[in-house]
């Protein structure tokens, strides 16, 4: 495998690229942790609404249990060559209480509406406080593109 020549992007370019991926990707890795049971990581479908990531999973899943106990989570888009990591706090919404706009946008994106399922589902909403974006070692410096909930660049 040949290494790829990487030309470092500006913070504004990294922000633009991260937002484009958040708006177009389907899957995101969700990392949670429980004080007694430790870390848990799972890929979920997600919707980016312009300010938050929305995911949905079984109401009794380890992801939901962990997020209720310890809401600090990390999200990662699935590409090790074009890293986008988000950190924030998850807010849990039972499917019957999720804001209508978010639920309808999620259903439109995926062709699946968890609110109609027999088994209970929970939506997780994560507003990022920190976003890191980098493309290989040349971009490790300056990888923070959002700090304290404010986009940089």
UniProtKB/TrEMBL annotation:
Keyword Cell membrane tagged: no
Keyword Cell membrane: no
Keywords, comma-separated and alphabetical: Oxidoreductase
Superkingdom per UniProt: Bacteria
Domain Pyridoxamine 5'-phosphate oxidase N-terminal: 23-134
GO molecular function: coenzyme F420 binding; oxidoreductase activity, acting on the CH-CH group of donors
GO cellular component: cytosol
PANTHER family from the UniProt entry: HEME OXYGENASE HI_0854-RELATED
Protein name: General stress protein 26
Source species: Streptomyces nymphaeiformis
């Amino acid at each position: 495998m040949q290494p790829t020549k990487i030309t470092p992007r500006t913070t504004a370019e990294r922000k633009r690229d991260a937002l484009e991926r958040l708006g177009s990707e389907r899957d995101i890795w969700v990392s949670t942790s429980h004080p007694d049971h430790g870390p848990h990581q799972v890929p979920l479908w997600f919707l980016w609404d312009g300010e938050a990531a929305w995911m949905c999973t079984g109401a009794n899943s380890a992801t939901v249990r962990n997020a209720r106990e310890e809401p600090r989570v990390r999200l990662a888009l699935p590409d090790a060559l074009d890293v986008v990591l988000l950190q924030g706090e998850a807010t849990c919404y039972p499917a019957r209480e999720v804001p209508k706009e978010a639920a309808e946008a999620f259903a439109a994106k995926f062709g699946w509406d968890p609110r109609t399922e027999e088994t209970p589902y929970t939506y997780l909403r994560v507003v990022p406080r920190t976003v890191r974006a980098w493309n290989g070692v040349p971009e490790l410096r300056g990888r923070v593109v959002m700090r304290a909930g404010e986009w940089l660049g």
